[in-house]
Write a structure and sequence with these properties.
Layout lengths: L2 H27 L4 H23 L5 H9 L3 H4 L4 E3 L5 E4 L2
Length: 95
């Protein structure tokens, strides 16, 4: 997938998710209470993160995407027969 396609997918997915959230949380986003507004902004930030993860992981299974969204470290997503390199990416096959 081209980089532009990924960015477009991120934007489209975030727009869809954020629109639904904003409809439900508009009072929180315009609250006089800074803590309430901060929680609403954090929720939007999480939606942006999820949008990026989903858009960037089309090569993974649904279970692997779920684990990424939930924050499982990359080394736990590496297949058992592959040793991760020092950056957490897939490395050489184990013998």
């Amino acid at each position: 997938m081209a980089k532009d396609d990924t960015i477009e997918n991120r934007v489209y997915l975030f727009e869809s998710l954020a629109s639904s959230y904003i409809s439900a949380a508009s009072e929180m986003l315009s609250s006089d209470d800074e803590a309430v507004r901060a929680r609403a902004r954090r929720a939007l930030a999480e939606l942006a993160y999820v949008s990026c993860v989903v858009s960037d992981t089309g090569h993974l299974t649904a279970e692997q995407v779920r684990e990424r969204v939930l924050g499982t470290p990359k080394t736990e997503l590496t297949p058992p027969d592959v040793e991760p390199d020092d950056k957490g990416a897939k490395g050489k096959k184990r013998k």
